[in-house]
Design goal:
- The strands form 2 sheets. A 7-stranded mixed β-sheet has the order 3-2-1-4-5-10-11, sandwiched between helices.
- The protein is elongated and about 70 Å long.
- The protein contains 11 helices and 11 strands.
- It folds into 2 domains: 182 residues, Rossmann fold (3-Layer(aba) Sandwich); 114 residues, Rossmann fold (3-Layer(aba) Sandwich).
- By secondary structure, it is α/β, with parallel strands linked by helices.
- α1 packs parallel to α9, α2 packs across α3 and α6 packs parallel to α11.
Length: 320
């Protein structure tokens, strides 16, 4: 391929810039022209892009967010939107695309591949909820951000003998909640993948630890569970422990990417260019067992991943 485009779509994730950098520099080294497409599939439909080179990606590897910006694009899901995107590719001479995002972005890449524009997708989402991947770009940074924020909340919680109920991101996935909960020593962790009994798994655990002298608590709740303010009120009513709710929100998406996110993003970006250079599209680059692999997009979208039940058991046993 002589010319490729790159875009970031959906929610931003730390490490996306590292992936962009790797794609641009790997492509330039192979003699390709690279277009950076602004604001995801919207930019592809609107022909909003610019030519990138070795220097346009200088000094971005340490930056959070995405220099190409991102957006969700309902119009792109229509035949009219798809036709506009394809017309832009033909006008610019774009032979293939690298798409960085989550499963919704992958579906867009699949649909373009079906219509003759080869695409390679790279998983970029803090939720770590892509079935074909053990690890997605942004996840490690988000985990470390949550850990740091909860550590700070714990300082106040401990000073006032309170219970902190902290909501973390994860749409319908509990990876951030489970792993950060273990790292922060949460008394209870509530995630959508595992059915829980509020009395048994929250109230009784707190009362049990109170008998051993514990007077402050941290409860980690996945955003898919429900209203953390109501959870905090219920805890306070049933235990007598003053309880406060905190929603960490989009602070989890930002910040400088960790070493792991920069490294994995660079590996994935490089592999994406290798595939396109070989004329191969309709693929998802993934990490499994610390190795960079690639899968057919159809296959990748149908793969399922699940929470490590043993890890959840460990969390419950050591945080009492």
């Amino acid at each position: 391929m002589k010319t490729i485009g790159i875009l970031t779509s959906g929610g931003d994730a730390p490490g996306m810039n590292a992936a962009i950098r790797a794609v641009v520099r790997a492509a330039c080294e192979k003699g390709m022209k690279v277009y950076g497409i602004r604001r995801g599939y919207n930019g592809l439909m609107d022909n909003d892009m610019y030519e990138m080179n070795l220097r346009t990606v200088s000094d971005i590897i340490q930056r959070g967010g995405t220099i190409l910006y991102s957006a969700r694009s309902p119009q792109f899901k229509t035949e009219e939107g798809m036709a506009k995107a394809i017309a832009t590719c033909k006008e610019r001479g774009i032979d293939g695309l690298v798409v960085i995002g989550g499963d919704g972005s992958f579906r867009g890449a699949r649909d373009l591949s079906l219509r003759g524009i080869p695409c390679v997708a790279i998983p970029g989402t803090i939720d770590n909820d892509i079935g074909c991947c053990d690890y997605t770009i942004g996840y490690d940074t988000a985990l470390n951000t949550v850990m740091q924020m909860v550590d700070r909340i714990r300082d106040t919680t401990e000073s006032h003998d309170r219970c902190a109920v902290v909501e973390v991101m994860g749409r319908g996935a509990g990876y951030i909640a489970l792993n950060s909960g273990i790292a922060c020593g949460a008394t209870s962790i509530l995630i959508p993948e595992i059915e829980y009994d509020f009395e048994r798994d929250v109230i009784e655990r707190m009362k049990r630890t109170q008998k051993t002298g514990k007077v402050h608590f941290v409860i980690i709740v996945s955003e898919a569970i429900g209203d953390v303010d109501e959870i905090a009120k219920r805890i306070q009513a049933e235990t007598g422990v003053e309880s406060r709710a905190t929603v960490l929100g989009h602070v989890q998406r930002g910040g400088c990417p960790t070493c792991k996110d920069r490294l994995v993003a660079s590996q994935m970006g490089y592999r994406a260019v290798e595939l396109l250079n070989e004329g191969i599209g309709n693929r998802v680059v993934a990490m499994q067992k610390e190795k960079i692999l690639d899968f057919d997009i159809y296959e990748a979208l149908n793969m399922k991943s699940g929470i490590d039940i043993n890890l959840y058991k460990i969390a419950m046993d050591i945080s009492i």
